[in-house]
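Posting for a labmate who doesn't have an account.
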Amino acid sequence: MTAAATTPKGERRRAELIEAAASLLAEGGFDAVRHRAVAERAGLPLASTTYYFDSLEELVTAAVEHHSNQELATGRNRLEELATRNRGVEATVDLVLDMLLGPIRPDREADAEAVLLRYERLVGTGRRPYLRPLMRTLSAQLYELLHEIFARSGTPVDSAELERLVALVDGAVVNALIEVDPEPRSAAARMLQAALA
């Protein structure tokens, strides 16, 4: 982080750039996060991206972290609702899938596209070694939250079982995407519900 980002104005502008980059990342993947696109989305001068970030890699890393932290916070809030209301298998499956696939979109095609983009991003991190340390940290936080979701739902799982369930969801989604299934989330839900039944 540059020294310019330590002032209130600098912190605010840096945050605006990170939010803009995170939204572009969610909408279009890594290729969508470019200096010009981020600056335009944030409504800031192009030079601000290089003023507040030492590199595009630093900006992408901040965007991934911001986006993931937002999703984890949403998941924690939903977990509190789950703990006080419905603890059925369907509610558990919905929350687990939201954590693994992102929040459901009302439009079927938009939801399938969002799931596809999410998996493209996840696979794409393998080609970006600078993201690996962050992804390990975020993955550990996600797995911790998933453990808590299952425990509070009355279906505690150990680490090996959780890994199996996540692999089951990933396999169902990838198969659905290969088959151009318009509802990869539904395919994953069926597999996960069957595994938890």
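Reply:
Got it, the structure tokens are right above this. Residues 173 and 179 are 10 Å apart (CA to CA).
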